[in-house]
Specification:
single chain; 247 residues; mainly alpha
Length: 247
């Protein structure tokens, strides 16, 4: 079987495993409830009187992912290590990269399914007004890329430990740092401490900084490159950690 065939086989196995577990359905229900509640009650969807989803819906996504994506990613490698199947997986006629990509793509696809299930909001805003659907599509794309970046970091923390709870907590802390350095308060703090240029350099590592453009309908290649680079670097780091466990 070729490389892509191996990746697809692993991804399919992982995706099926997700939906064999009640955790997948719990995650999706919680995500949809959060989206509905925050959009209509805390995002003032109706009170805004504007046919758009940027401020009422997509605004909350970085914060939802902070807690939900590490919960999805914590089992990726920690569970394999805990039950002792990591060594078995690595002795199969596949490369570590194929295993890493297969498991990551399955989880990323699962997040895409959860995100796609929010389509009633898109339909609702079109029913009530005439939104710019290009802006909404760009925001969905950015949200999915951002979810992939959160997930890739969770891959690292999951590969580091056998305990899923530890993976979740460490991932949450790292993702929180990468989120908070892009807030207005953090930017002002770093400006006062280090000056404008260094503050902006620190802010450029934030999920928020690179998601803002997407939420306004702007697909900037630099933002796409940031998320893809973060995913690539995190998966490479995961491969290094797993390789160490093999020796």
């Amino acid at each position: 079987m070729n490389s892509w065939g191996n990746i697809k086989t692993i991804a399919k196995r992982e995706l099926v495993a997700y939906f064999m577990s009640p955790l997948a359905y719990v995650f999706i229900v919680i995500f949809l409830l959060l989206c509905g509640t925050f959009t209509f009650f805390f995002g003032y969807f109706y009170e805004r009187g504007v046919a758009e989803l940027g401020q009422s819906f997509f605004f909350w996504h970085p914060w939802f992912y902070l807690f939900l994506v590490p919960a999805v990613g914590m089992r990726l490698w920690a569970e394999e290590r805990r039950v002792g199947t990591l060594e078995l997986l690595m002795t199969m006629p596949i490369t570590p990269w194929q295993a890493i990509l297969g498991k990551f793509l399955a989880s990323w696809l699962f997040l895409a399914i959860a995100l796609a299930l929010t389509f009633p909001l898109w339909i609702t805003v079109n029913y009530l007004g005439n939104p710019d659907n290009g802006v909404i599509f760009a925001a969905y794309l950015g949200s999915w890329l951002m979810a992939g970046a959160y997930l890739a970091i969770s891959c690292i923390t999951s590969a580091m430990t056998r305990a899923q709870v530890v993976s979740f907590i460490v991932s949450l802390v790292v993702c929180a740092l990468l989120l908070l350095v892009g807030t207005g308060g953090a930017l002002e703090f770093f400006k006062n401490l280090f000056g404008v240029s260094i503050a902006e350099a620190i802010s450029s590592f934030s999920f928020l900084t690179h998601f803002v453009g997407f939420s306004k309908g702007v697909i900037d290649s630099r933002d796409v490159l940031f998320f893809l680079s973060l995913i690539g670097f995190s998966l490479f780091t995961t491969s290094v950690i797993l390789r160490e466990h093999r020796h």
